[in-house]
Specification:
There is one protein chain. With about 90 residues, this protein is an alpha+beta fold. Helix content is about 30%, strand content about 30%. The chain has three helices and six strands. Bound molecules: zinc ion. Zinc ion binds next to loops.
């Protein structure tokens, strides 16, 4: 799973573990659960003024990589350090 460690915020050239074709990954970015919880807390604490700060700083986004050929989920990356991978 050498490619998973290189997985980041951008598209990646990989050999898909599902269909075994070389492909460029499609990346979908979405906020992590922690971001929603923290965002909600910050919103409440600042009366809704600063909740957006949590989402602005990208740290709490999760980047999911999918195969362009077979649309399989290949792996994910987040800057909080949680990296998972489908074999
Ligand atoms: Zn594939």
């Amino acid at each position: 799973m050498a490619f998973s460690t290189a997985m980041g915020q951008r598209e990646l050239l990989v050999v898909c573990p599902k269909c075994e074709r070389p492909t460029r990954t499609m990346v979908y970015k979405h906020p992590t659960t922690a971001a929603w919880i923290l965002g909600a807390c910050v919103c409440v604490l600042t009366l809704g003024l600063c909740g957006w700060v949590v989402f602005k700083y990208g740290k709490f986004y999760y980047y999911a990589h999918f195969c362009r050929e077979c649309k399989s989920f290949i792996g994910g990356f987040s800057r909080q350090g949680e990296i998972d991978c489908v074999k």
